[in-house]
Structure formats: structure tokens, C-alpha cells
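Hey there, shall we discuss this one?
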Amino acid sequence: MKRIKLMAAAAAIVAMACGTAMATPSTQIWIPSTDAKDFKNIHIDIDNYARFSGSGEADTGANMYNLGLSAGVLPLESLKLEVGVDFLKQSSSSAPNADNNPFYFNAKLATPEDAFGLKGLPAFAVGTQSIGSVPETKYNIVYGLTAKTLPVIGRVSIGGYTGDKDLLGSGSNAGVLASLDRNIPEISDKLWLAVDYMGGTSGGGKNTNGALGVGGSWAFSKQISLIVGAVFFNPFQEDKSGKPTLTTQIDISLP
């Protein structure tokens, strides 16, 4: 995705007292991707998540505003390492300790498709995300992914993750990651679309981060792009994760 749309959507929501947090490296709409930034490539992300429902409704959840900074730090073509930090704030007083400690960290080691001169080799990535500094923010998610671009269909990604059971949900703190993303040259090389999913091992994804994400990106230039999408949390977790969100994510690439 990053090669096509130059978008590192650092999706993050801290909602309700046991809310959601996704301080991430390069992503699709909601889940991490196998993309990683090139050496010395720096990205600034300005992300907004706004609830579809009004603030007066029960269990709506908090709006979230995120400023992220990430960079590639490994000078290799077939093995990339990116590290990042997010500054996350929410429009809610229900999780004050999380809001008073708004920094989350992430890192990812990844290989692109056809790495090391091996034609047909899928992309691979392992990483960690949502690493907070206090118990309320230490989601400590560790994940692994593989991806392959198929003719016509686009890129299919599949993997899994595990994280803190107290924050994600006891018995469902691990699960599947899956996505399909595709550039749309039939319309414009600047257009990219994706759908992704994060689920748990029980209850169909019953944890505070389980969600379906859909959206698209438009690259205004090689340095600036915008993603617009929505995140639909698993219905039976709305009491913790809140109502669906409309997201806009601006990415600025330097240099």
C-alpha cells in the first residue's frame, strides 16, 4: 500500500474506560500492513476519528485525534525497519490516565514481495504496536503478516496478533488480521481502495480492537495523500469500543 498511495494511517482510538487503542506503524485502514518505510523516509500522520452517533447517545465512545511520526532506519532494500511514535488524544474524560500519558510506540521489520531476488516470494512483516507507558495504555500488541499481490484481485494479506488480555479482553486477546487492497488504475493511478479486519479468537472478534475497516486513498503528490474511510467495531463490543467512526488521515512524506 505505501508504495502505491504513500499513506501511513496511524489509526488510534482510546474509547471509554476500557477503550480502544491502535498506535501503529504503516497500516491499511485499521490493521498493520506488510509495508515498511525506506531508509531515512520520514512520515507525519494527522488522523481524525469522529463517531457517527451524537455525543448524547449511550456508549457512543470518544472522538480521537492523532499526530504520528515514523521513519525508516535500516539501509537495506530487502529488509526494512521502521519505528514510530504517536501522540493520541480523545474527546472524553472517561479515561483520564490514558489521556495524561498520550505517547504510544511501534516498530516493524518487513520484507517486500520478491525480496532478496526471489521472484514470487510473498511479503512478510513482524512488529509491535500500541506500546504505552502506563497500565491503561500498554496494549503491547505483537503481530505477524504475510501478503501477496494477485492479478486482477489485488494484494491479499493474512496474519495474526496477540496483546494484553486485560485491555483487549481475557480469552480473546489474540486473533486474525486480514485485508484486501488494490490500486485502481482503471480510474486513476492516484486512487487506492482497501478493506481490512481485526478479529479475536473467540466470540467472532470479541475484544476492544476487533473491527472492520473500509476506505480509500487519493495521492495528491508523491509527498501528500489523504485517506477517507470508516471503522465498524464488532457490534457486541460497542459498549467498550463505541459506535462506528468516520476517519480522515493525512500523510506527509519527507523528504
Summary: The first strand starts at residue 42 and ends at 51. The chain has four helices and twelve strands. The CA atoms of residues 41 and 83 lie 11 Å apart. The first helix runs from residue 2 to 5.
